[in-house]
Structure formats: C-alpha cells, structure tokens
Amino acid sequence: MLKNKKTDLYNILLGQLLSQDDGIDAEILSNSALNAIKYASLNRNMPIISNILSRASSDFQRNNTTLNQTIFGSNFKNPLGLAAGFDKNGVGAGLWSYFGFGFAELGTITWHAQQGNPKPRLFRIAKEKAALNRMGFNNEGAEKFLKTIEKQKIDTPGNRPCVLGINLGKSKITPLDEAPKDYALSLELLAPLSDYAVINVSSPNTPGLRSLQGTKQITKLARTLKDISNCPPLLIKIAPDLSNEAIDEIAKVSKDNGIDGIIAINTSLDRFDLKNLKIKTGNTLEQESGGLSGLPLQKRGMEVISRLRRSTNNDLPLIGVGGINSARSAWERIAAGASLIQIYTGWIFEGPTLVPDILDGLTSQMKKHGFRNIKEVIGSKEPWK
User: Fold this and answer.
1) In which residues is FMN bound (predicted)?
2) How many Å apart are CA 302 and CA 193, to the nearest integer?
3) 3-state class of 173 per DSSP?
C-alpha cells in the first residue's frame, strides 16, 4: 500500500524532478521542503497540521519493540536515523519522529554563523542515485540554533519520541590550532539539548578540517570537550577516504579518550568509477570539488564499518551511513557491525516510504533468522535472505 502511495504522491510530485540532474536547483528544492517542515514543526499542534502529521505517523512509524535498543543512555525506538546535513539549523527537530525515524542528527552547526561556499554547491547525480555537495557548513550558528530549538518547545533529552543528536563543526574563520575551543563553545551552549553530540572532523568542504582526524588532534578535541561539565555522549564522524591503518588509529584513540561511538562515513573525495561523468556544470566529477554521497559509497561504507568493528573489539557503538537506500543495505550494514544506521541521499531519491520499507525489511529478516531483538543482528554477519 505504501508503495502505491509513494507512486501516487511522492513520485508524481517530485519523482520527475529527482530523476534528472537538470531542472530545479537541488539546494532550492531542499530549502523549499525544509521551509514546509519548519512551519509544520512550529505549528504541529494546530488541528489541520496535527491531523496531517497523525496520518503521516500512521503511514511511516513502526512501533515494533524488537527494534528498540538503549545506546548512549537513550532509548532508540528503532535503529534508523536521519543523517546530519539535511536539517542543518534544527528547524524540523519536533517533527522527525512523525516520519518514522528513531533518531535525527541535526547540523552541522558551527559557533559562528556562516554562509558556506559559493552557489551552486549541491548537485543531483540521479542515474547513479548520488549527490555532490560542497556546502561548507552553511548554518545560522550555535546561538541561533538554540533559539530555533527553544521555539519548537520539544521535550527534554530522555523524554522525546525521537532521539536528537547535535553534529558540531569548526567555524571556517577559526584557525585549526583553536579548533578545540571553537567546538567547545558550541557544545557548552547546546549540550542541554543533546541526546548525543558529534565531532565532525571529516567534511571535505572546510579547508584543513580533515587534518583534525590525526591522533594528537582527536586526543586534544576529546579531552577538551569531555571536560565540559554537562558533556553528552560524544561521537566522532570520520571520512571514507582514510587508510585502514588510519581507521585503526582512530578506533584506538577514541577508546583511549572516552569517545562514546564512531559514525562512518562522511562524504567522499573519491569519485570511484564516476570520474568522467559530467554533471550539471558541464564538468566531470573529477574536475569538481566537493564530497560525493549516495549509492557509490555503499561498498566503502561496509568496508569501514567492518574494519571498525574489528579494530574496536566490538567495544564502541558504530553508526553506519553512506549509500543505504534499501532494507537490504540497511540489514547488511547492521550485520557488519553498525548499532544504528542513517540515511540522507537515499531518502531523497527513494522518498519518505524508505523509512517504513527499511523497518519492515529489518523486522522480516529478524524473523527469518530467529533473532528476537535488533541487538542480536549487530555484527552477526548474517546474510540477507
């Protein structure tokens, strides 16, 4: 039934736009959707909007207790989350549970408000179910983010239908050697809102940011942020372009410094087998700057999660993201070692029913394998049946 609804509504309204690289600018399309989400979140108690959201939740939510687990001290109703990058300013913080997500990661947020890189900076690569972005942490800054969340009057951490993570980045104007202070300013302000917080040191679109993935830099960041009195569970998000040795080092330094989990992976500078593919600019992907996301990252995402599972000795929760666009790819990422998974590009291309499709698929596979809870799937290496 949901598939028919998607065909009748989502595909009719947006399918044609999303099936081609040309047409409405990808960022304009995203911002239009976010404006509608912002209005609905602020006014979700109005009768007409409440009725719409109620119908949405009946379509998209799955209240299956076998998908529940407690991680980072929070109860996740299911393991599927919205990845950082879509709701940069937290305008939909009060709404993501209605779409069926068990959690949502807001941001990336920086201490200083910033416009990001010049436009155009977001491109659909429709045939390959991928996107290229060089947004550059465009956001309204931590102080405005706080006000945006407060206006929505959402419940406090631990009392929400949807766990909320806060993804933090370094302001572009802040020198690299002052990065810990920059992150700390944002975290000190936003910690009371956060079920967990993420140190984003892996975006390719802020000059020098990825150099913070080194052992010494992670150690300094972790110690600075962990010293904050109300520091929430702290995760680090890493790049897909790291060597296996670097991944092992990050696993070790994370465990040594009290990092609570690792998110893998961010967007990639690798163009895989798409180097000669031309995009809307007329240039090839190899000629364009920015991070690649979506289906081309699926294999690398699996490799990194599997590597982290081994190098952490199964001691740290992992969040898998990158190229997840189906129930099968979600199952495979969890079976490889991810405790939680996130979607973004796949959600854009496949539509909102991707969420219940994934949750239904996970539930079905658990029954086929005889698992009683999603936790039993994590790292099991059991194949999709």
Assistant:
1) 84-88, 108, 167, 200, 237, 294, 323, 344-345
2) 31
3) coil
Active-site residue identified among 97, 203, 306, 339: 203
pTM of the predicted protein model: 0.95
The Cα-based distances of 363 to 128, 145, 324 in angstroms read 28, 36, 17
Determine whether the annotation assigns residue 344 to a binding site: yes
Active site residue 203: yes
What is the per-residue DSSP string for 156-170? PTTS-SSEEEEEE--
Domain extents in the chain: 2-376
Q: What is the C-alpha to C-alpha distance for residues 133 and 137, in angstroms, rounded to an integer?
A: 11
Ligand-binding site membership of 275 (annotated) = no
Tokens 């976010």 belong to: 34
Flag whether 244 is marked binding.
Answer: no
Sort residue 103 into left (φ over 0), alpha (ψ -120 to 50) or beta: beta
pLDDT for 188-242, tens place per residue?
999 999 999 999 999 999 999 999 999 999 999 999 999 999 999 999 999 999 9
Q: Is 226 within 8 Å of 218 (Cβ atoms)?
A: no
Query: Distance from CA of residue 214 to its chain's centroid?
Result: 22
Q: Which homologous superfamily does the CATH classification assign to the domain defined by 2-376?
A: Aldolase class I (3.20.20.70)
31 belongs to an annotated ligand binding site: no
Please report, for residues 19, 79, 254, 286, the alpha-carbon distance to residue 163 in angstroms, rounded to integers and kept in the order given. 32, 10, 23, 37
Name the nearest CA neighbour of 298 among 335, 338, 325: 325
Question: For the segment 89-110, what is each residue's pLDDT rounded down to a tens digit?
Answer: 999 999 999 999 999 999 999 9
Query: Residue 8 — very low, low, confident or very high, per pLDDT cuts 50/70/90?
Result: very low
Extended beta strands in the chain, E state: 69-71, 74-76, 80-82, 103-109, 122-125, 130-133, 163-168, 196-200, 234-238, 261-264, 291-294, 318-321, 340-343
Query: Beta-carbon neighbour count of residue 355 at 10 Å?
Result: 26
State how far the Cα of 37 lies from the Cα of 63, in Å rounded to an integer: 23
For residue 18, the model assigns a pLDDT of 56
